[in-house]
Amino acid sequence: MTRCVTIIGLGPGDDQQITPAASQALASATDVVGYITYVGRVAPRPGLTLHASDNRVEAERACQALDLAAAGGNVVIVSSGDPGVFAMAAAVLEVLEADPERWVDVDVSVLPGITAMLAAAARAGAPLGHDFCVINLSDNLKPWAVIEKRLKLAAEADFAMAFYNPRSKARPKGFEKTLQILNRSCGDNRLVIFARAVFTKQEQIKVVPLSAATADMADMHTVVLVGSSQTRLLSHKNRTFVYTPRAYED
Ligand code: SAH
């Protein structure tokens, strides 16, 4: 009996961005558990049971996976991107912490994946070439005041920034407020990258100065990258790259 849970990331969209280790985990799995959209990316085969669940039921999904493993399964939990970035790896550990005795026999491991921010940065050039920070703009799991404080301090510290979950129908105002905060702290020419559905057929990369950035440029399929004061454009062979040099000039 294997009794293990492996938490993997499927990368941003294109199967070429799945690591060989994650593919190997899927190839030996008896069960795959995850949000319906991500489970849909796993090819069915004999001997594999797919367990798709709805969004926002992370704790239940984690329990289900651990229970399947406790019963002898080789269970893979799938996230998009990297499973440790605003995704299932932390959800599984939260559930384990809450009930340490329940799954003592289950081995748990996490495999890294290519997170949306890194995929988007590669498409744009190298906007994260110097120091940067990452903020989840959803206030579902934390107060908005915490987000606002982090935005202000990140701008003050001149970090490049990556924003996950920038805007949804349920949270139409947060990204508008984010742009207002940035407008107060950064210059008009600060570069903003809207990277939508990166590494899928719907991919769209838009680069605009902060003064031209509007809230409707982002949705739930977008990761937003904001440059530091040093981030610039570079033209090379019919292409414009966005990049942040490794050395500080000021
Ligand atoms: N674990 C995932 C992130 C989950 S949070 C990862 O590591 O990428 C969901 C957010 O990720 C989305 O709202 C969006 O901001 C970002 N995202 C995920 N896939 C994306 C893609 N292909 N292109 C752009 N942004 C993406």
Keyword list:
5-stranded mixed beta sheet, single chain, alpha/beta, 5-stranded parallel beta sheet, 250 residues, binds S-adenosyl-L-homocysteine, elongated, 7 helices
Outline the fold blueprint.
Blueprint: E1 4-9, H1 20-27, E2 31-35, H2 36-39, E3 49-53, H3 58-70, E4 74-79, H4 88-98, E5 107-110, H5 116-124, E6 125-126, E7 132-136, H6 144-156, E8 160-164, H7 174-185, E9 191-196, E10 204-209, E11 222-226, E12 232-236, E13 239-243
Parallel strand pairs: 1-4, 1-5, 2-3, 2-4, 6-13, 7-8
Antiparallel strand pairs: 8-11, 9-10, 9-11, 12-13
Helix pairs in contact: 3-4, 6-7
Structure description:
This protein is of the alpha/beta class and 250 residues long. It is built from 7 helices and 13 strands. A 5-stranded parallel beta sheet has the order 3-2-4-1-5, with helices on both faces. A 5-stranded mixed beta sheet has the order 7-8-11-9-10, with helices on both faces. The protein has a 3-stranded mixed beta sheet with strand order 6-13-12. The chain is elongated, with a radius of gyration of 20 Å. The mean pLDDT is 96. Bound molecules: S-adenosyl-L-homocysteine.
General shape: elongated
Helix tally?
A: 7
Low-confidence stretches: none
- List the secondary-structure elements in sequence, H or E: EHEHEHEHEHEEHEHEEEEE
| End-to-end Cα distance | 60 Å
Order of the strands making up the biggest sheet: 3-2-4-1-5
Structural class: alpha/beta
**Relative helix content:** 25-40%
Strand percentage lies at 25-35%
Q: What's the alpha carbon Rg, rounded to whole Å?
A: 20 Å
How would you characterize the largest beta sheet? 5 strands, parallel
Distinct ligands: S-adenosyl-L-homocysteine
The mean pLDDT is 96
Count of DSSP E strands? 13
